[in-house]
């Protein structure tokens, strides 16, 4: 796909991420596209559901498999606002997604090129093509804003608790 198409789909992933943010979740959104059609989407629900596997990519993969009636997502591209972690990269390989496009890099957990690239590991029986940095500034800013707001809320809560003790 071309850069303009990638940006169009990444904007959709950003819209999905905003739904997570509205719930107080880390704003990460993912969509899966096949034949120029969005067939699935997901956003982080890890805190809401208290499930370690409730990452945007995993939820989108699960929905895509249900919608297509198969675990093989050949011919699909996943767009995600943050670089996939090891769990999500593994799920993408195992589900045979052909291409992964992400926005912001993850220096602490990124496994699509930052810390390692599990999606292009030749010892696996499947590899996915990776395109990184699509709308990276917008994706990164959304995450930065979320965490800044979270720190502010925690500080206010802590200060309020201290004031109540006095």
UniProtKB/TrEMBL annotation:
Its cofactor is Zn(2+). It catalyses: adenosine(34) in tRNA + H2O + H(+) = inosine(34) in tRNA + NH4(+). PROSITE patterns: CYT_DCMP_DEAMINASES_1 (PS00903), CYT_DCMP_DEAMINASES_2 (PS51747). Transmembrane segments: none annotated. It holds the Pfam family MafB19-deam. Belongs to the cytidine and deoxycytidylate deaminase family. ADAT2 subfamily. This is tRNA-specific adenosine deaminase. The gene is tadA.
């Amino acid at each position: 796909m071309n850069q303009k198409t990638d940006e169009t789909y990444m904007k959709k992933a950003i819209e999905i991420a905003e739904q997570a943010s509205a719930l107080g979740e880390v704003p990460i959104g993912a969509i899966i596209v096949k034949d120029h059609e969005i067939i699935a989407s997901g956003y982080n629900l890890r805190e809401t559901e208290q499930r370690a596997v409730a990452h945007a990519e995993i939820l989108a993969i699960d929905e895509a498999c249900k919608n297509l009636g198969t675990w093989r997502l050949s011919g699909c591209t996943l767009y995600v606002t943050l670089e996939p972690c090891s769990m999500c990269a593994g799920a993408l390989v195992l589900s045979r997604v052909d291409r992964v496009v992400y926005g912001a890099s993850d220096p602490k957990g990124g496994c699509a090129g930052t810390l390692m690239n599990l999606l292009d590991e030749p010892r696996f029986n499947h590899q996915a093509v990776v395109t990184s940095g699509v709308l990276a500034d917008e994706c990164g800013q959304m995450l930065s804003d979320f965490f800044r707001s979270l720190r502010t809320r925690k500080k206010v809560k802590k200060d309020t608790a201290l004031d109540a003790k006095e």
